[in-house]
UniProtKB/TrEMBL annotation:
The keyword Coiled coil applies. ANK repeats lie at residues 52-84. It holds the Pfam family Ank_2. PANTHER family: ANKYCORBIN. It comes from the Eukaryota. Keywords: ANK repeat, Coiled coil, Repeat. The lineage of its organism: Eukaryota, Metazoa, Chordata, Craniata, Vertebrata. InterPro entries: Ankyrin_rpt (IPR002110), Ankyrin_rpt-contain_sf (IPR036770), RAI14/UACA (IPR042420). This is Ankyrin repeat domain 24. It comes from Xiphophorus maculatus (Southern platyfish).
Amino acid sequence: MKSLKAKFKKNEVRYWSKSDERLLQAVEQNEPDKVTALIVKKGLCPTKLDAEGKSAFHLCASRGRLDCLEVIISHGADVSVTDGAGFSALHLAAKNSQHECLKRLLQVKISDTVSDPDHAKKKCCQI
């Protein structure tokens, strides 16, 4: 059974600002330069969830915004993070037939797995 602290942390909603909303709009309009500027200048977290449980990162994957996705990945986003419904960006790209985003996310996941120093020590069933 999950601890009470873990349960509250999962449901915690961080403050959502106008800048966070602008980041979502930049992704929606497929403006990678604006996405870059907002992440760099405003220090925004593209995996931050809004009240509906969506993030700019997940929106990229579900809408096929490959250029914006590249920007977010290049700024160190954790590609395994899930949205409010429990879907990863990989799930959303597959669900919405966004093949290029799916391919890119798989490349990132594979490179993360290969660069994991503990990966080589484990047997197949332990992974």
